[in-house]
Amino acid sequence: MGELRSKLAIEALIKSFASVEDRIRVEACRALGKVCEHFTPEVIERFPEAPDRLRPGIAWALSNAGEFEIDDMIDLLVDDDARQWVAYVVGTQDKDEYIGEIERLREKDPEVYFAVTVLWKIMTSWIWNVEEY
Q: Residues 73, 40: contact at Cβ < 8 Å?
């Protein structure tokens, strides 16, 4: 479904995040990421009303596509679960790309702003991806 890159697939892919099997959720997540590259506004639109159990997949797809503005994310701060996933989505982006917009997030939600900046600090540190062997 992701290879078709059709916005008609968005709803079915999001619903599949409720699957019992992880491998189905993972494949649906990857497919939604591909669709999201072309239909980010349509995916963003489904985030606020999505149940908590479906938001991780939507958040991953949004993060992976990286085709959003900070104002898009501010509109998604509807509850604590959404706030945490918005912090993940923004915090996994390239800091330099969003640094000019991040003050609007700080004004709207200082805690999410803090979480984003902590993620940026960790992910740009030399310790990021250090593996033990």
A: no
Residue with tokens 């200082």: 110
Locate 17 and state its tokens: 């995040």
pLDDT of 65 reads 93
- What pLDDT, in 10s, does the model give residues 36-71? 999 999 999 999 999 999 999 999 999 999 999 999
Q: Count the Cβ atoms, other than its own, within 10 Å of residue 55.
A: 24
Burial degree of 91 (CB within 10 A; 0-12, 13-18, 19+): buried
For residue 28, the Cα-to-chain-centroid distance in whole angstroms is 14
pTM of this prediction exceeds 0.85 = yes
Query: What single DSSP character describes residue 17?
Result: G
Residues in the chain: 133
Computed over its alpha carbons, how large is the radius of gyration of the chain?
A: 15
